[in-house]
Amino acid sequence: MLENASAAMDKGDYEKANGIFRNIINSNQPIPPDMPYLFSKTLYELGQYHNSNSFVNKYLDLNGFKGTYYKQAKALQTELAHPLEEIASCQYCDARGYRYGICETCHGEGKTEQACSLCRGHGVIGCSRCAGDGMVTKKNVFNIIEYFECERCSGKGRLTCTSCHGTLVETDTCPVCEGSGHTLTEDLCDHTAPEK
């Protein structure tokens, strides 16, 4: 299989080589010692610089300076330095170089609105001081129960919801993007501002 991947690389068909290398990895067979370098070169050509860097480092860890492709691997590390710096400084992609997309749930706002869970979308809640009656009872010094209008709710028995403040909706951090407004895509970033 490694020969097929190498032949695909020689023809410039890096997508095909990528598929073959992934099949080698998924086969759970022992990986040939030169495969990490060849795979890293393929990933470099496909623009997957973070993954390429991981595999070239793995190749050097496994084979050291005695590896068949030692000089080429060191040269590839040098070539990777600039793209990896671009990825690290880019605000439009993650640390692996994959572009952020606008979150479909919150439409890039980072917040979602839903019916208020406290008032269940009514905008009012029962007064806790008078238990919704509007009246409060107190015993005087003669042990006689006196009735007073509740000062907290002005005798209405209801208060404006303390969670949504009467708007009927509560705003919370988007659970999908965790408030960032974006999610990861499988697209490689070109480090330019996305079109709106």
UniProtKB/TrEMBL annotation:
InterPro entries: HSP_DnaJ_Cys-rich_dom_sf, TPR-like_helical_dom_sf. Transmembrane segments: none annotated. This is Chaperone protein DnaJ. It comes from Cyclobacterium qasimii M12-11B.
